[in-house]
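User: Good morning. I'm curious how uracil would be positioned relative to this chain. Could you predict the structure with it bound?
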Amino acid sequence: MRAVDLIRKKRDGGALSGEEISFLVGGHLRGAVPDYQMSAFLMSVYNRGMSEEETIALTKAMAASGRALELGGIQGIKIDKHSTGGVGDKTNLILAPLMAAMGLKMPSIAGRGLGHTGGTIDKLASIPGLRTEIAPWEVLETVKNVGFSICGQTDEIGPADRRLYALRDATATVESTPLIAASIMSKKLSEGLDALVLDVKTGSGGFMRGMDEARQLARLMVGIGNQAGIKTVAVITDMDAPLGRTVGNALEVKECISALKGRFAPDLLEVTMTLAAWMLHLADSVSEETRPQRLGEHLLKRYKDEAWDYIEHGDAFKKFVEFIDAQQGDPEAAFNPALLPRAMHIKPVLSPWNGYIRRMDAFAVGQASMLLGAGRAKMDDVIDPAAGIVIGKKPGDAVRAEEPFATFYTNEAATLAMAEEVFLSGIEISDREPAKRKLIHDVVLPF
Ligand code: URA
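Assistant: Good morning! Here's the predicted structure, ligand included:
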């Protein structure tokens, strides 16, 4: 078998067998298939797509490249939540300690930022000393002792995704349904889970711009998860505007610390608590051996109220502190966010007009944040953990001309003007108050 023949086959629209896909994934990992050939393969998949069978084969080959976490000896229901990626999308850092406080176990393998979106691992890297490149035994210890762990892909955990993830980011091949599904589900299949909630983002700031694509990705991943024996549902949530009030790594960690103390932006609260409710419902359906049901308003509220208790009484915050300590970060940072990296240059962005914010395009906000230093344009770019944007006014809010509606943070003053131009290109202001945005669009259940 030769890589070049398989690339040609996919380039011309053919379907690859499981053996052929394993040959490419394994060969790439061993160095027998170089990055340039794998890049050509990724671009062929981006252009031609993959059948469901091929996507499942790719997911399995990627999962088999590393070690599975062996959580069998740890008591409790193992659950995770994974997002397809967004701007200001920080719910993992709130949900993991929350679920641990509620007695569930969450062994999360997460990723760095991709394209204009942020990544959980980059956010955690802004906490002084915190390690996310840890060995499987350290993940198990932390899950056992704290209730959750968040680690990045390593040579042992998700190694194929580690390599492909970085390559996709640098070759404009991120926005591909099979590649996203295989990337996410290969990590989740390695976690030894009982249940999984997927947050499929739709809108300008997600990789799936429209509802049809989002539903297709959600159904594909829900199918892969359930076939593997993991109770999986997907919640399709809005990513037309950034989530919460911050974009950028240390800034988002600070927002999560506030949220864990009960202070949430309304949109972040609704999305986080909806995901929490679904996680609790799935955990119940694991212990009761029932099928997950569509949640009515009443049950949804009951789960949300139950979760809120653990925020309100400080249990989730306490778990977050324990987690930082267990992964060798400085737990003081949770009490004193001034210990997180701080930017030298701070600039308010003023509203050009009077009116209501009708649109704050998440893609433009993500691009502006990248320009300030919060994201990578190339594989080896170094992120500035302090860089990013604090959003003072959200869509639907009234603003006056010259009123600051966002604040930029960076250590590179030269980036400010361009970032402002990009940010403002995504803002629309209207005379009339816009209709309230819908945040939760749909839920995809196993069929
Ligand atoms: N998250 C992942 O882990 N992979 C993707 O491809 C997108 C989001």
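The radius of gyration is 21 Å. Residues 130 and 328 are 5 Å apart (CA to CA).
Let me know if you'd like a different ligand tried.
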